[in-house]
Amino acid sequence: MESLIKSLENKNCIKIVCGAGNKNLDEIEKLIAVYAKAGVKFFDISSDKDVIKAANNGLAKVISKHKLHNYHLCCSIGLKGDVHFRKAFINKKNCIGCNECISACLQSAIIKSHDILQVDKDNCIGCAKCSDKCANDAIGLEYYESSHLARLVKDNISCIELHAAIDNSEKIIKCWEYLSNNFDGLLSISINRKYISDTNLKKLLNHIIVLKSPFRCIIQVDGKSMNSGAENFNSSLQTIALADVVNEFNLPAYIMLSGGTNLKTIQLARLCDIDFHGIAFGSFARKLVYPFISKPEFWEDKTLFENAIILIQKYFSDFLIR
Question: Domain spanning 86-143 has what CATH number?
């Protein structure tokens, strides 16, 4: 825990987001293994017990036992209505089999079997790219609530993140109170401006931070979530704008940039003089290494593993050495 707090205080914390709804165990194990070997030490995963096991397996494959304490898992939980906790489904009555959704899905979560399209729920992260692409209203999104609170507070994890982009402050506070009273690690709250004004956001954040010791909280400012891994300034605008708002609150908490983040996000934050302690990379980070980890021979072919690490270090070294 000390090493995680130190990286936040040094303002060089980098977190790789595997996807709050991602339950592709093979992908998660590979993703965490290759980024950990490249130097990243903080990973955001689903609160599913099998996912936690896969994440630990990935770390164990590349990190020696006496160094594992420097690597940290953050388990995401979500309240019903948050975009990170939804899954796509196909309305077969409307589907004409055009296959446009297959190419739109970055997670390879839509598969075709016997001319019938299906959604692989373990791979789907609810990004809605398939739904946006469909011209026949054949893809819907169903929300769910993922918590596992009672079990999670006993697991050997460093951080629990509450995704709270919903129109129900009372529900957010109730869940946060439970976590504050039962979990000794870092707590993170992922927020955006979809349902709440700046004034009410300040009231909410002030209220929940009082429930946890100063600087034991991470405020994850989530701009344009699951933005397909684009590498441009535009995908980060909402994130930087929200970070600017939260900075003005001057709260005793760490600020993590998230949502449409890429290397341009860091440049934009510095240009705008935005103070932040860390940055979370999701779609961008997964897309970067997918050509390597998607290969069946990934574990056996050392060249694939090594080339993935070289690419990661090329993209992220500047931020990691700050």
Answer: 3.30.70.20
